[in-house]
Amino acid sequence: MKISSRTAQRIAKTLIWASALFVIVILLAIIIFILIKGVPEISWQFLTEIPRNMGRSGGISSSIVGTLLVTAVAVIIATPFGVGTAFYLTEYTREGKVTRIIRFSAESLSGIPSIVYGLFGFIFFVMYLKLGWSILSGGLTLAVMILPTIIRTSEEAIRTVSYQYREVSFSLGGTKWQTITRAVFPSAVRGIAVGVILGIGRCVAETAAVILTAGSALRMPESIFSPTRTMAEHFYILAREGISMEKAYGTAALLIIIIFIINVVANMLINRYVAKGH
Amino acid sequence: MLSVLMLRFNGKNMKSANGACMPKRQICSAVSVLILLFSVSLLSACGGINEAGLIVAGSTSVQPYAEVLSEEYMILHPDVLIDIQGGGSSAGIMAAQTGTSELGMSSRVLKDEEKSLWYVEIARDGLAVIINPENPIQNLTLDQIRQIYSAEITDWSQLGGTNTKIHTITREDGSGTRDAFVSLVMGESSITPRAIVQDSNGAVRQLVADDENAIGFISLGLVDDKVKALQLDGVAATRENVLNGSYNLSRPFLFVALSEPTGETKQFVDFILSAEGQKILMNEGLISPLEGTGT
Amino acid sequence: MKINKEKISGTIFLLIALSALSVLALITVFIFIKGVPIIAKVGFFDFVFGMVWDPGNGAFGIFPMIFGSVTVTLGAAVLGVPIAICCSIFLAEFAPAVLSNIVRPAIQLLAAIPSVVYGFWGLLFVVPAIRNHLGGPGLSILAGSIILAIMILPTIISIAEVSLLSLPRHYKEGAYALGLTQWQTIRSVLLPAAKSGIVAAIILGIGRAIGETMAVIMVLGNAVAIPQSILDPARTLTTNIGIEMGYASGDHQQALFATGIVLLVIVMILNAFAQYVTRRK
Which chains does chain A touch, 3 or more C-beta pairs < 8 A? Predict the structure, then answer.
């Protein structure tokens, strides 16, 4: 039985609209559920008090600070190394087998499940280097986790900078260093920023890699050698143990809002980057 | 990789109508502000280079009680920092052995190869076998429970209940609770590999509360009205019955260390063993080694 | 003077690159060093195809976990890919600007949800639904597949959409000029042309599904036996590491690293495939 092209068109159109509708419905189901239950929890008190009684009362300030610090450590370490490596790979080496292998490895490493990084971080940073459960261990683990991604996105951003920029700079007598810093970097910076920001988003949402490296402590961290409990981890523990559903929802809602903002910023940058006409 | 592909595709063909770009200066200043913020928070956090505090790691069963104790202790001694970490009894024992933590928490007795560690019993905890409140069964023998967990009995109807499959829930391998259960109930049999594994008492409890056909085991102190604790050979699972010995599923909560604790660690342990510390534990439903015939 | 600065900056970059790359090499080497001995000890085939995982008794067969990973991911792909592709077609072809400006951020928002929240939501809604209407404990491969399918939607949709949008306009115009309907155009002209990008999107989605840990721990049930139906609980390679890494020592710990090696190999294969497919453009 042959379906007329018009009927096929109608069926296809219905299915396609239906799928879009489905995605929206699912999204609403999850987001609205969390936000409705969680946003009422977010008060000034929630944001500034530390958890008490295992998280049943008080707020999540120590968790917020801990998440920020772990992410900060990860980004501050990973970004210079990642961007520097990307520059080295594009500007100082010739395209060849070695660079292809490096690129492939970076790509593969950025796809490894975060739990494997967690396992590595636990055995290496926490136990072997004796850093213990700390923000430093967690941050280092996350830094290693986002390093390949930053290298890849930075490299991609740098490579798409038109060769003309470099040619002009060299023809004007510029050195390699001057070319990089004054001609290439400014053009590539947005693409690089996108990679870094997405890396930040990944750090904030991460649980598997921090749960056994950053620890599980509820008090306000004193230094980067203190253990802490990130918001994602706190949500996981609260929800699983049934300790306090309200606080769990509040934590989740705050997390989602933060990550969403991060993603929006990244996308704004992608769009502006494209608009520049590369 | 997602971002890489997006950049590649975007860079190649997408034609965007929007011509206005964010001025470079704004980006630079935004980025430098961010870096500044991060550095400031990092530097301020670098204040105390060394003290991470007293670390107590291990059993997720002991963890909530250890947290309550440490909260109280830190109120009494504001200059002391204590951090409680989960991971399971085996993880705690290993952490103590390797020096990753000062104290380890365990909800099972030490194995032979662990006997070289220093340990002290801080409380005793009953082990409750729980089922859903809708489940009509009230009482089982130890052997029946063993048969359920080894999959010799697979249907509730075999025990006089409904005609449905039993959903067995157990804890993870490194759990002290599971170890205690295995040594007290299973004997030579092993838990069926088809059992559902959850990684905390709370998760087990939640599951049993939601599923009419589930059976699990948790800390007696954590039983609430969402689940029903089975009677064992006619004996109800209550704190009193554990105390007087008629309910014999119970296990010790231990604190272990590489060697006898000194200094701050010793003071914390002393606090836990003191009347004050023990009162806190008893209020939470545990049994103190100071009480009755216990141990 | 200029030459010196050149050399210095060159050296600095070299040092930075070397340290970064050596760290990445360290991880790979570390995982291999820790994992290979146990594979050698147990035997490659016994490890990868061994049916019993019982570290307490020295049994280190990861096949049940491989089976779990594969079935859950396959399930996620079967459920998620059609919807994702349809949705990307929607965004690229059917949606009026007003709607696409709502739907696209909506998909961004889906990507912003942390995996633990997905897992929790699945535990609250999907698992009981399966338990009450389909039977079994609810914690099952089906639950895992559903949750993973939702999680990989944003990944596949965004890349597939970009691939469709980046096609030259004359493909479409030519097709319409020949009298094809919109659907015929999509089916016989646009989709095949965007094939490499779409396939890359799907592979990325699959990669994400295989690597997911937290959401899966919460809804999969983590039983060590090989599941016999999609309503049975199961365990994946990632959740196995997640559950046991806190307390594993000695051989057991090595076996977990060996599992990490297996995961690394899987990711590399997926990556190579994705690169092959996109290079063919």
Answer: B, C
Average pLDDT for residues A57-80, to the nearest whole number?
92
Amino acid identity, residue C227? Answer: P
CB spacing of C114 vs A207 below 8 angstroms: yes
The answer to whether residues C10 and C76 belong to one domain is no
The beta-carbon neighbor of C223 closest among B13, B194, B199 is: B194
- Tokens 């606080």, residue? A247
- Secondary structure of residue A220 in the 3-state scheme: coil
Question: Which domain range does residue C17 map to?
Answer: 2-49
Between chain A and chain B, how many beta carbons pairs sit less than 8 Å apart?
Answer: 153
d(CA B256, CA B57): 10
Count Cβ atoms within 10 A of the Cβ of residue C203 and give its class: 0-12 exposed, 13-18 middle, 19 or more buried: buried
Task: Convert the pLDDT of each residue in C19-51 to its tens digit.
Answer: 888 888 899 999 999 999 999 998 999 999 999
Q: Are residues A87 and A107 in the same domain?
A: yes
pTM to 2 decimals?
0.88
Domain containing C167 — which CATH number? 1.10.3720.10
Q: Which of A72, A75, A226 sits opposite B53 (nearest CB)?
A: A226
Same domain for C80 and C218 = yes
A80 with A203, same domain? yes
Tell me the pLDDT tens digit for each residue of A112-142: 899 999 999 998 999 888 888 999 999 999 9
* pLDDT tens sequence across B170-222: 999 889 999 999 999 998 899 999 999 998 899 999 999 999 999 999 999 88
B94 contact C CB<8A: yes
A238 touches C: beta carbon within 8 Å:
no
A175 CB neighbours in chain C (<8 A) are 2, 5-6
Any idea which residue has 């706190």 for tokens?
A234
How much is the pLDDT for B184?
A: 92
Same domain? For A101 and A22 the reply is no
For residues A9 and A127, membership in a common domain is answered with no
Residue B131: phi, psi to the nearest 5? -135, 170
Q: B294 pLDDT band (50/70/90 cuts)?
A: very low
Based on the domain organization, do A131 and A10 belong to the same domain? no
CA distance C46 to chain A (A): 22
Task: Give chain C's domain count.
Answer: 2
Query: Please, which chains are in contact with B (at least 3 CB pairs closer than 8 A)?
Result: A, C
The reply to whether ipTM tops 0.90 is no
The secondary structure of chain B, three-state, reads CHHHHHHHHHHHHCCCCCCCCCCHHHHHHHHHHHHHHHHHHHHHHCCCCCCCCEEEEECCCCHHHHHHHHHHHHHHCCCCCEEEEEECHHHHHHHHHHCCCCEEEECCCCCHHHCCCEEEEEEEEEEEEEECCCCCCCEECHHHHHHHHCCCCCEHHHHCCCCCECEEEEECCCCHHHHHHHHHHHCCCCCCCCCEEECCHHHHHHHHHHCCCEEEEEEHHHCCCCCEECEECCECCCHHHHHCCCCCCEEEEEEEECCCCCHHHHHHHHHHHCHHHHHHHHHCCCECCCCCCCC
Residue C48: other Cβ atoms inside 10 A: 15
Domain hosting A9: range is: 5-41
Pairwise CA distance, residues A226 & B55, whole Å: 10
What's the pLDDT at B252? 92
